[in-house]
Amino acid sequence: MKNTIIILGMLLAVTSQAANNKTLDTIYANDHMNMVLFFPSNIKQGIVGNDNFAFTYNREKGQTLGLLKAVPGKDSNLLVITEDGSVYSYMVRYAKELEDPNRFIALQERIGTEKRDVREKVSQTEPSKKRVLDTLINHTKADRKFQKSCEALLQLPERRCVRKKSQGLSLAVKNMYHMEDEVYVQFEIANHSGVRFDFGDLELFKVSGRRGRRASYQELKLLPLYRYGSPSGVMHGQKARFVYVYPKFHLDKGQRLQANLSEASTSRMVVLRFK
To answer: For the segment 75-85, what is each residue's pLDDT rounded down to a tens digit?
Structure first.
């Protein structure tokens, strides 16, 4: 509701143009690939209207690159304002597969401007090659930063050990660190089931309330920015440790975290709740 109010307020301030009469284009996203969006100007603000979508961009150093991810759920909308005052609006929808995980946004796609004195410039109709190259380099640097931080985290002593066992499998959280705008969570899977465990998925949620009380129970999936060392499988008698990186979050009163570990092609699952 809060995001919806913000979006409506910002749209009312937009100077409408002829493009407003056109049907909004739809951008597809999912939870296992990054839908990469390149805008003609650096992104100043990006808002999605539903919690099953996440749009991330560099808030400290302006970049033209934004990443859209999604989990199954209702369609929503994405509103983006760039530093040149241009406003872009799209419908967003979950799709299991993406035909093309990259999209270059043209200036002509904007629905209006944040200010009346914004003038179009021919040089801004498409992102320049240098700007796109710089953005790709910065994105690669971010991945390298995540990789080095994850490697360092795996070398640190365990600060916590919250564990859940089920059907011969156990899932544990060994470390959880807040670094700058990210949260690094170190997981461990131990297999004592007698058969190989084929890694399917690991999902992390913020939950509040109890399942028995539908009106009070809420569940919000946290989408990882980076995964390091995720195993394809764990043999009987072995362990696997790996790290997921999430955008910074905090837990309100009454909230906790829930990690769901599932196996590919079977019903085996381990559900770990912790704070």
So the answer is: 999 999 998 88
Query: Tokens at residue 33, please?
Result: 């690939």
Write down the domain spans for the chain: 2-127, 155-274
Band the pLDDT of 126: cuts 50, 70, 90.
Answer: very low
Domain 155-274 has CATH 3.30.470.20: no
| φ, ψ of residue 23 in degrees (nearest 5) | -70, 135
State the number of CA atoms in the 13 A half-sphere of 266 facing the CB.
12
Look at residue 30 in the predicted model and tell me its pLDDT.
Answer: 92
Distance CA 175, CA 243 (A): 9
- Residue 226 identity (one-letter amino acid): Y
Closest to 76 (Cα-Cα) out of 150, 35, 42, 26: 26
Alpha-carbon gap, residue 109 to 131, rounded angstroms: 19
Query: Rounded distance, CA 26 to CA 92, Å?
Result: 5
Q: What are phi and psi of 152, to 5 degrees?
A: -65, -40
CA–CA dist 192, 166 (Å, integer): 10
Confirm if 63 and 133 have CB atoms less than 8 A apart: no
